[in-house]
């Protein structure tokens, strides 16, 4: 029994010795793995976050003496050690970096997570001074400046962006995220009036003569022309009949006197609505086709607009100041400015038959155009264009040779006088408006009742009722109300 106990004790001792030797062999490697420590800076208790203004410096007072400093990005942050416990940090470029401070034993004293960005305190103070009613917050991302908040008008947002761009030095580094508190809507009423006055006076003589001279009979007629209006030149037509007998002359004259007065009125009163900073257009007229090119026998057509057109872009500067960029045009089709393509009749060389070729006439335009930029209060009016044009044409035409004879030459010539005056006026009135309810709006067809057959045939009425009746005061209850009274 004792012998078995001794053998078991010896066996356990051998196993324990083997385990001890194996443990001793493995201990150095495990100890080396446990000694590796990775310090990311921001994870340690000695880490701090520092926001450093660009091109400015801060002073760091260390709790104990430092012998070594490590800067991760020296191009963005520079460190200067004046003493063992005082360090100067300078922001060189917008961005991020970190700094480690070690003592003489290599122990970490401090870790700084540094963010270098622009100092916006001066810009924030300047914006509050220039625009006290605006609620603007200035943020930065690296070298960029972000404007957030709200302003009264779009012009305030533009001014804030301009101030920030000059403060930073580069407009590309400014991001405008400002919102407009009041989306101002502008209604523009325009009155376009054009008056054309035309006066035409014509005076001429038409004559005919029948004469017998021995054996000849002479039948002559002439017509005076009015070339100022584009008619052909008049002349003398004569027929000679021989073997006539008889006496002298039968002479007839007819005087032509013509006077014309004309007046044309062109009136347009468009009303446009647009948000501040947005454009709106209007056209009352039409379009006509104009060929602009040809490819493989296919003619390309482009349509040109004519009539009364208006375009404007309002910018609300303040509660009572509106900046308007206005383009106004009055155009009409004019045959005087037309262009004709093609020729008349051609002869076929084979058959000798005439062939009529196609003729294309492209009309022209008479245009009165004006572009203005004005500044008006809400409800204020201004005549932005006034054009007075006068054309006078005078022509004296007659039969060559005879029209220059004294006294009698009056019978062989005509006089024409044309005076045309055109006056154009454009008046604009902007208003700051707000949406309303449908109950406050009416349309031209509201209240229209067509006539009955008797009204249409007997009376000749075009409508039985037209227009809205005036709205009176709303009827109200008299006496106590709001409760059921017994």
Structure description:
The protein is mainly beta. It is built from four helices and 23 strands. The strands form six sheets. Strands 11, 12, 13, 14, 15, 22 and 23 form a seven-stranded antiparallel beta sheet that branches. Strands 1-7-6-3 form a four-stranded mixed beta sheet, with no helix packed on it. The longest helix is centred in the first third of the chain and has 34 residues, at 2-35. The N and C termini lie far apart (123 Å). The model is unreliable at 1-17, 22-33, 224-249 and 481-486 (pLDDT under 50). InterPro entries: Bact_Secretion_Sys_Channel, BON_dom, GspD/PilQ, T2SS-T3SS_pil_N, T2SS/T3SS_dom. Residues 112-182 form the BON domain. Pfam families: BON, Secretin, T2SS-T3SS_pil_N. It comes from Aquisalinus flavus. Residues 1-23 form the signal peptide.
Compose a concise summary of this entry.
This protein is mainly beta. The protein has helices at 2-35, 121-130, 154-168, 453-459; strands at residues 47-53, 57-61, 68-71, 77-81, 86-91, 95-102, 108-117, 135-141, 144-151, 174-180, 185-213, 216-223, 236-242, 249-268, 271-275, 280-295, 298-318, 321-341, 345-347, 354-356, 360-376, 382-398, 413-433.
């Amino acid at each position: 029994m004792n012998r078995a106990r001794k053998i078991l004790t010896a066996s356990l001792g051998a196993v324990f010795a083997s385990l001890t030797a194996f443990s001793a062999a493995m201990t150095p490697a495990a100890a080396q793995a446990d000694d590796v420590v990775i310090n990311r800076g921001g994870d340690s208790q000695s880490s701090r976050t520092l926001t450093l203004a660009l091109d400015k410096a801060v002073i760091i007072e260390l709790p104990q003496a430092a012998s070594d400093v490590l800067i991760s990005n020296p191009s963005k942050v520079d460190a200067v050690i004046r003493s063992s416990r005082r360090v100067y940090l300078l922001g060189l470029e917008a961005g991020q970096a970190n700094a480690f401070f070690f003592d003489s034993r290599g122990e970490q004293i401090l870790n700084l997570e540094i963010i270098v960005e622009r100092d916006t305190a001066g810009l924030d103070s300047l914006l509050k001074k220039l625009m006290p009613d605006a609620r603007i917050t200035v943020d930065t991302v690296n070298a960029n400046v972000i404007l957030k908040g709200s302003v009264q008008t779009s012009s305030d947002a533009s001014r804030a962006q301009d101030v920030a761009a000059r403060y930073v030095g580069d407009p590309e580094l400014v991001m405008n995220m400002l919102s407009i508190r009041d989306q101002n809507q502008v209604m523009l009423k325009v009155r376009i009036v054009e008056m054309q006055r035309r006066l035409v006076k014509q005076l001429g003589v038409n004559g005919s003569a029948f004469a017998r001279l021995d054996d000849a009979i002479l039948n002559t007629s002439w017509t005076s022309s009015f070339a100022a209006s584009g008619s052909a030149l008049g002349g003398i037509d004569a027929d000679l009949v021989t073997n006539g007998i008889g006496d002298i002359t039968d002479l007839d004259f007819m005087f032509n006197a013509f006077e014309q007065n004309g007046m044309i009125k062109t009136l347009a009163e468009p009303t446009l609505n647009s948000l501040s900073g947005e454009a709106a257009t209007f056209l009352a007229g039409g379009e006509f086709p104009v060929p602009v090119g040809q490819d493989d026998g296919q003619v390309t057509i482009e349509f040109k607009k004519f009539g009364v057109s208006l375009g404007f872009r309002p910018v609300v500067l303040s509660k009572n100041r509106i900046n308007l960029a206005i383009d106004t045009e009055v155009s009409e089709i004019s045959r005087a400015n037309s262009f004709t393509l093609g020729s008349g009749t051609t002869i076929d060389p084979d058959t000798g038959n005439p062939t009529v070729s196609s003729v294309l006439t492209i009309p022209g335009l008479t245009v009165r155009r004006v572009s203005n930029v004005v500044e008006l209060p809400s409800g204020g009016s201004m005549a932005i264009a006034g054009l007075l044009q006068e054309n006078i044409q005078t022509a004296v035409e007659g039969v060559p040779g005879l029209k220059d004879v004294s006294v009698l030459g009056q019978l062989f010539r005509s006089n024409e006088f044309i005076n045309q005056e055109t006056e154009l006026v454009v008046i604009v009135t902007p208003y700051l408006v707000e949406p309303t309810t449908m109950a406050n709006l009416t349309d031209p067809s509201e209240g229209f009742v067509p006539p009955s057959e008797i009204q249409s045939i007997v009376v000749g009425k075009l409508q039985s009722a037209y227009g809205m009746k005036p709205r009176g005061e709303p009827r109200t209850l008299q006496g106590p109300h709001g409760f059921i009274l017994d």
